[in-house]
Amino acid sequence: MAFQSRLKFFSSPQVKTPIPDDKAPDTARSTPGTKTSCDDESPIASLDAPSTPPPSQRSAALSLPATLAMESSFELPDSTDWLATSLPAFEPLEAALRCEVCKEFYNKPVITSCAHTFCSLCIRRCIAIDGKCPACKSACQADKLQPNIAVREIATKFQEARPKALELACAKDNDDGETAAPASGRKRKREVADGDEEGRRTTRSRQTRRSTRPGDEIITHDMPVVIPDSDEENEDEYIPDGMVPCPICKKPMKEEAVFNHIPICPAAQKDTGTRKTRSRKDYAFPNPLQARRKDNDPPPTRLSGLHYPMLNDKSLRKRLQDLGIPTWGTRQQLVKRHQEWLNIYNSNCDASDEARKPKQELLRELEDWERTQGGRATAKESHIMRKDFDGQNYAMAHKNQFDDLIANVRKRAKETSKPREEKVESTPAGSSGSDPQPAQADKPEFTPDPRHPYENNEAALSSIRQKVEEANRTDSAFPPLSHNTKDANMKAAQDAGIHQDKIPLGFAPENPLGNPTRKVPMFRMPEEPVVDVESSTTIQ
Amino acid sequence: MTSQASKRLFKEYRDLSSNPPDGVTAGPVTEDDMFVWEAFIEGPEDTPFEGGVFLAELRFPKDYPLAPPKMKFLVEMWHPNVYPNGEVCISILHPPGDDPHHYEQASERWSPIQSVEKILISVMSMLAEPNDESPANVDAARMWREKRAEYERIVRDNVRKSLGL
């Protein structure tokens, strides 16, 4: 009942007049229900006004954090846009024209064999996953989908009419001045509260959509009455404090919002858009008929699916190649890509003739999908080297980075070289260089060496014994350094340090002390035979 | 380029913030990444969870809404349908075609027309009415069935803990 009354209220001619006084009798006439509420509220309107901001402010507050709202790539019109306007009944209407999967306006809508309607691409993706209708879970086949032309026309036309209608619905509240905004605000709150009491909250959108559907029709009938002649008079009048009008559409808004608004200003598109649509409006379904007369192309044929288990990798790749889509990746990726290509391609066939895209465009969509959800999206993929990967070129291109990394590692190694040298001296030649674990190097079982390199080096031997004792006693990973051991190994450590400083990348070091392991650059074999000084034998 | 998934998540965020259901708040942790959300769920009235506010995390797959998100409580929960690590186990969060136990109706499971709002409302009703047929936390389920008083005491302790009392 409340709904009906509001309806009359908006379609009545008096609505256009900006004088608030006219409004009160008008609403009072409508129905007893709203009469009382309006009468209640008009005396206290001035009290309410400060607490209830004008609708444009209110909608700004209702929408998102400022950073998100500003982001133009995320300009997302939504059915809830209507809630803050004087036409909240348009919310369920618009919700009914949006796909339940992607929540966008129906894009190339198709109807399933269970009579549910979705965007062609959405339902095809769903079917590819589990073969069921997302709404009723009954079995569904992609080749049973039929374009839903009526819904397509309604959704497109509604989208064209939307900016203007929304603008009017927002502007109306302003015209009504301070009395109207609080009144409608109250009513809305009351509605929501009712819904809660009845426990309708969980399925709100669906139920309200059902219940208000007859009303929506009335509104759409009335719409043309409101739209055409309220254009000019309505807009450039009442502008609340702190607001400035948009230079194009005259809609009042905060000054800082104007800049962001202009690129998306509905009036800018309106001038070209709505005039055309209005002239077309009289025909119910003009486009398909006209197009068919002109159309010379044969109707597009949908691609049929493949039975993947029947195909080996090679023939699957061949199929993809024949379709002109990329053939890299694992088998699983090939299958997914083929499925997605079928979805994209076949959904394009459901478009109206003039909206059908060329294959090039579809390939770009496939590429987008690849980036966001396909093979290139997962982190895992980036670790797998592709077959046609040009390793040499990559190495050349990134040589600087590699060099930097190597230099970094060497610098770090040098910083830690002092403590390392200690233990290196004490361990057999073979195991020390690449041993990152100091504790292991100190373990006694590493010390025996067939060639006994430290047999005559009493200082080194004693330092080893000392370390082993300390390790056994304290059980620590690395025994603290003492001056004793430092002295014993000082010379060798210094030599090693000097050599490391001077070795240019990629050079085999000369090795006067016969301790080959420390001085060899990482990951590089010495290019000349290394001579063990003590035993005078050549180790290779 | 933003994917369909993040667009849809953004819409749901917008819906939830402009038209929030009772007892539930949810949104992305940071606006840079729409695929990780945090949600606060109030304990339903007339249950031992009453008065509590429970923090949970929702992680969305890249092909959302074709596949459901994963939900995990970040506070301690003692409930038959919540794993000891906090993961929520309810049918609406189970992807289609994945029903090893064959106890769920297909209609109860995830479908792309479900939404974050519906998930959170389902979780609230799960708190009020545990399903002990296929418990995620067997001990909690047994306690719920056999020693209801003790179960309620633990839950109330957790509520107090979640509020930092």
Automatic annotation (TrEMBL), chain A:
| Source organism, top-level taxon | Eukaryota
Q: Please state the protein's primary subcellular location.
A: nucleus
Composition bias, Basic and acidic residues: 414-425, 442-455
Q: Where in the cell is it found?
A: Nucleus
Gene3D superfamilies for this protein: Zinc/RING finger domain, C3HC4 (zinc finger) (3.30.40.10)
Q: Which UniProt keywords apply?
A: DNA damage, DNA repair, DNA-binding, Metal-binding, Nucleus, Transferase, Ubl conjugation pathway, Zinc, Zinc-finger
Class of enzymatic activity (EC top level) = transferase
Q: What does this protein do?
A: E3 RING-finger protein, member of the UBC2/RAD6 epistasis group. Associates to the E2 ubiquitin conjugating enzyme UBC2/RAD6 to form the UBC2-RAD18 ubiquitin ligase complex involved in postreplicative repair (PRR) of damaged DNA.
Q: Which protein are we looking at?
A: Postreplication repair E3 ubiquitin-protein ligase RAD18
- Organism per entry: Paraphaeosphaeria minitans
TrEMBL record, chain B:
Q: Name one GO molecular function term.
A: ubiquitin conjugating enzyme activity
List the active-site residues: C89
| Gene3D superfamilies per UniProt | Ubiquitin Conjugating Enzyme
Q: Name one Pfam family in it.
A: UQ_con
Q: Which InterPro entries match?
A: Ub_conjugating_enzyme, UBC, UBQ-conjugating_AS, UBQ-conjugating_enzyme/RWD
Q: Which UniProt keywords apply?
A: ATP-binding, Nucleotide-binding, Thioester bond, Transferase, Ubl conjugation pathway
Q: Which CDD domains match?
A: UBCc_UBE2G2
Which transformation does this protein catalyse, written as a reaction? S-ubiquitinyl-[E1 ubiquitin-activating enzyme]-L-cysteine + [E2 ubiquitin-conjugating enzyme]-L-cysteine = [E1 ubiquitin-activating enzyme]-L-cysteine + S-ubiquitinyl-[E2 ubiquitin-conjugating enzyme]-L-cysteine
Q: What class does this enzyme belong to in the EC scheme? A: transferase
Q: What is its EC number?
A: 2.3.2.23
Q: Where is this region: Disordered?
A: 1-28
Q: Where is the UBC core domain?
A: 4-164
Give one GO biological process term. Answer: ERAD pathway
Q: Which family does it belong to?
A: Belongs to the ubiquitin-conjugating enzyme family.
Which PANTHER family does this entry report, sorted A to Z?
A: UBIQUITIN-CONJUGATING ENZYME E2
What is this protein's name?
Ubiquitin-conjugating enzyme E2 2
Give the species this sequence originates from.
Paraphaeosphaeria minitans
